[in-house]
Amino acid sequence: MTKTIEQSQTRLQEILDIEIKNISKLQVSYEHILEEIRDARRHIYENLDRLQQNTIRELETIHASLNAYLEDNTKRCLEFISKLNGYGTQLKDNMSPERSFITFRKCLDEIAATESLIKSMKQNDAMEIKHQPNHILNECLEECTDLGKITSCIGEPQHDVDPNKIVCIQDMSQYNVQTDNMNCNITDMCEAPDGEFVILDYTNCCVKLLDQAYRVVDQLKLPTPPWSMCNINLFEVAVTVSEYDADALNGIRVLLVDNREIIQIKALKMDHVCRGIAYHNTDLFVTSGTALYQYTIDGRFVEKLYEDSSGDNTGNVRVHGNFPILI
């Protein structure tokens, strides 16, 4: 019995040590997610500030144009009033018939010009600036219920991986994921939160979602072939799409994978070929085949980190440990 008690105590102590570590890890993940939520709000505010500045700039441009137009009309009215007053005064004076006739003709011309101005200005009685709210933006915000999905991962074992361990294939199975006329050319894949798999079909220019039985449950067509992808959070993946040369369609597609569906939520355009991709510390690292670029998660260029133009395909990118590496 004493031995049994000791074994139970040992097992309980092991579980206790694990739970104490889990509490620390939970706090770290909580603080990390909280910072991500704040970053998401900050990005929304930055975009709202940009929209506000663009709208105010357009308002100021239109206001300045209309104000200059009205000030010009005001100036012309005052000039006509002054001229007509002058002709009225001259016609009352004693002048020779010839002088009086000339003044009378000039007065008639001025009156005709005045009538033309009055007629054109009557059309501007209701001059004002109007604003048409962006209802699409408001509806989009009203439909949102949160800044992102919050899920818990309980009971998933954590494994320490030996970097020197040799990995061996113990079993292999084949599955048919072809849904098009052309044979599939799978260039990359990753696992979705529900145990499903997202695969890239280069030949048929699409992203496919497989269930746990490896059946195709959804697919998303792309305008140009997909090369590589990476997870950027629990429900979103970033996919590089590119032709072999620089093209207007080259870039990154951010996809939402949830409820057995693939939905494109963002398209980021790049001015270079896009092949390998990795996500690290809220930034995207993209290779063109010969160079490594760093971008923010919303597609803003940060810097070119490395370039080797000795060949057409001198490297890809993956995240290893705490930093991206070329392979």
Concise structural overview:
With 327 residues, the protein is of the alpha+beta class. It has 2 domains: 2-122, no CATH class; 186-326, 7 Propeller (Methylamine Dehydrogenase, Chain H), CATH 2.130.10.
Question: Could you give the topology of this structure?
Answer:
Layout: H1 2-92, H2 97-122, H3 135-143, E1 186-191, E2 197-201, E3 206-210, E4 216-221, E5 226-231, E6 236-241, E7 251-258, E8 261-269, E9 277-280, E10 283-287, E11 291-296, E12 301-307, E13 317-320, E14 323-326
- CATH class placement of the largest domain: Mainly Beta
Can you name the CATH architecture of the largest domain? 7 Propeller
Biggest sheet descriptor: 4 strands, antiparallel
Total tally of structural domains: 2
- Whole-number average pLDDT? 82
**Judging from the principal axes of the Cα atoms, what is the shape?**
elongated
The counted number of beta strands is 14
What share of the residues does DSSP label as strand, in percent?
Answer: 15-25%
**How are helices and strands ordered from N to C?**
HHHEEEEEEEEEEEEEE
CATH superfamily (homologous) name of the largest domain: YVTN repeat-like/Quinoprotein amine dehydrogenase
Helix content: 25-40%
Distance between the termini: 57 Å
Give the strand order of the largest sheet, numbering strands 1, 2, ... along the chain.
1-2-3-4
Structural class: alpha+beta
